[in-house]
């Protein structure tokens, strides 16, 4: 992570008719970090992401992405970001290679499908059709498609929802590897364990407002400093540890 600010959001608002979904939020994302937007369903996470991605109109506020103003240069912003499509956006009957070539054409970028599939551990599925992939494989493939235009920033909206523990951990490793190559990652999740291990910093959003923003470690330390203690005895492992211990870290063929 560097100290450079790559995204800056200032007093962002979004109304849907009379309803204020985003009520004036401000935050900055540093280059090379994994930044988490956390919050319950309906908090305004996807709305915020899609505005920064240039896919949704904002009501008010300013957004800068890598020096470009969202109002003036949305085209420049599009060039340097990678956006994960909803899975329904893929032609189910095309193979992974065909899909990557299709996206490469849309982005007007030369692509090397097999190399790209390597980065997400899907080379052996190169000739499989999208509809034949498991849930975890679909998620990995959709992350691969965010990388086609060699973006400086990728946006992942709940990438691990619905995955089993092995596939989830595998996806965390992949996201870290992408960050380690210098790409900034913004991710939404409502799994707090995931945010705790993956995110350098998080903003917690509730009903359209940011109510906390820090590294997970500092947020926890702060809560503990108020005298908070867990009501139950803290064990050295949890049920997910048991599950992974029994079933192993390895991905299943279905993953
Ligand atoms: P999150 O991603 O945190 O679950 P969203 O950004 O999807 O939240 O939604 C925030 C709020 O805005 C929710 O109450 C949702 O119902 C509402 N909302 C989202 N999209 C629309 C829309 N196109 N029209 C009207 N209301 C919407
Ligand atoms: Mg959402």
Detailed description of the structure:
It contains nine helices and ten strands. It has helices spanning 45-52, 74-80, 96-107, 113-119, 135-146, 165-180, 192-198, 216-225, 239-247, and strands at residues 5-16, 19-30, 34-38, 60-65, 68-69, 81-83, 153-157, 184-189, 201-206, 209-214. Strands 6-7-8-3-9-10 form a six-stranded mixed β-sheet, with helices on both faces. β4 (60-65) and β5 form a beta hairpin. The chain is globular. The structure holds adenosine-5'-diphosphate and magnesium ion. Magnesium ion is lined by residues 45-46, 157.
Summarize the structure.
With 255 residues, the chain is an alpha/beta fold. It has nine helices and ten strands.
Mean pLDDT across the residues is 92
| Shape summary | globular
Please report the total strand number as a whole number. 10
| Helical residue percent band | 25-40%
Low-confidence stretches: none
The helix/strand class is alpha/beta
- Along the chain, the helix and strand elements come as EEEHEEHEHHHEHEHEEHH
Major beta-sheet overview: 6 strands, mixed
C-alpha end-to-end distance: 31 Å
Alpha carbon gyration radius: 19 Å
Strand order of the largest sheet: 6-7-8-3-9-10
